[in-house]
Design goal:
The model has no long low-confidence stretch (mean pLDDT about 90). This protein has a 3-stranded antiparallel β-sheet. The protein is an all-alpha fold. It is globular, with a radius of gyration of 20 Å. The chain has 2 domains: about 220 residues, Fic-like fold (Orthogonal Bundle), CATH 1.10.3290; about 55 residues. Strand 2 and strand 3 form a beta hairpin. About 60% of the residues lie in helices and about 5% in strands. One of its GO terms (molecular function) is ATP binding. InterPro entries: Fido, Fido-like_dom_sf, Fido_containing. Keywords: ATP-binding, Nucleotide-binding. This is Fido domain-containing protein.
Length: about 325
């Protein structure tokens, strides 16, 4: 791979990432119950957002029901259900690879791809054999015959020259290069984001929580990287890692079960309507738990969200309007 100038992170973002990573390291090693909780939460969140970036229309609650309960959701195709369950299985494999900490190989990538596209594509688990084009992109992926050698070079770069970069910058470059090669007939984005998170988690960071509603920003950043400018992509991924770190920190400081309140009971103390709170939970911007079909969260979680909005770390979004 050609040498790439080091991308630049926004200095304020870099400081926040360092602060949150330092705080998280103070909690390590994480207790087993927190590790289990994080796995369950991130398996759903990352599936919801990564499949959503590719056009899946299941909402967060539906994604959770499909993954955890095996429930069929009316109005959604079998393909959308399989995309959710497949990605969840691939994320579970990803976490096992993080724990094993062995060098990434072609076979690991094939195994992840097989899980992502199981029952969805006949070429699951193998390099593409034909031509592909990218919608709304000027970049033309290489000929299929070049894919094996390009991927071998990509894997070699990860073990050598890539180590000169900060983990988040290395992740951004590696992610773009993988997507640019476009080694599979389908599933490149989902597998690419899983591999990005494998690199980040092995370096002690949280996974990058790239939001489905920021899809266009993410695609534009990839397009800028096509032209050799990685700054935008590094910052998009940096902010996604910051969101992931906050999920970890929230789990480490989670309130006891009796502090979880119904959304209606949180309207007065938080100044937000139950509809707004429910929307924030479904969008993955506010942690919550569902019991008996109703959402619960904590005052501390809402205050943390509001503080993040004030600092510019979290998007306020557009709350639903009462009719």
């Amino acid at each position: 791979m050609r040498e790439i100038p080091e991308p630049r992170l926004d200095p304020r973002l870099a400081r926040r990432l360092d602060d949150k990573k330092t705080t998280l390291d103070m909690y390590r090693p994480l207790p087993p119950h927190i590790v289990r909780r994080l796995h369950e939460e991130l398996r759903v969140l990352l599936t919801y957002h990564s499949t959503g970036i590719e056009g899946n229309t299941l909402d967060l609650g539906e994604t959770q029901l499909v993954i955890e309960e095996g429930i069929t959701i009316g109005g959604h195709s079998l393909k959308e259900h399989l995309e959710a369950t497949n990605h969840a299985e691939a994320y579970s494999m990803l976490t096992s690879l993080v724990d094993r900490n062995e060098p990434l190989t072609e076979e690991h990538i094939f195994a992840l791809h097989r899980l992502v596209l199981e029952k969805l594509h006949p070429e699951a688990g193998q390099w593409r054999t034909g031509f592909v084009s990218l919608a709304r992109s000027r970049h033309q992926p290489p000929h299929a015959k070049q894919v094996p050698s390009l991927m071998a070079a990509w894997l070699a770069w990860l073990r050598t020259d890539a180590l000169q970069y900060h983990p988040i910058l290395r992740g951004a470059i590696a992610h773009h290069q993988f997507v640019a090669i476009h080694p599979f007939a389908d599933g490149n984005g989902r597998v690419g984001r899983l591999l990005l998170n494998l690199h980040l988690m092995r370096d002690g960071f949280a996974p990058a929580l790239l939001l489905r509603e920021q899809r266009l920003q993410y695609i534009r950043a990839l397009a800028q990287a096509d032209a050799g400018d990685y700054d935008a992509l590094a910052n998009v991924i940096g902010r996604a890692v910051e969101r992931g770190l906050q999920v970890y920190l929230d789990a480490c400081t989670a309130a006891p079960e009796d502090e979880y309140l119904l959304l209606a009971d949180l309207e007065e103390p938080t100044g937000l309507t139950k509809e707004h709170l429910g929307w924030l939970i479904r969008q993955g911007r506010l942690p919550g738990t569902k019991r008996g079909g109703r959402w619960y969260t904590t005052i501390a979680a809402v205050e943390s969200y509001k503080a993040g909005v004030e600092r510019g770390e979290v998007s306020r979004g557009r709350p639903p309007q009462k009719s």
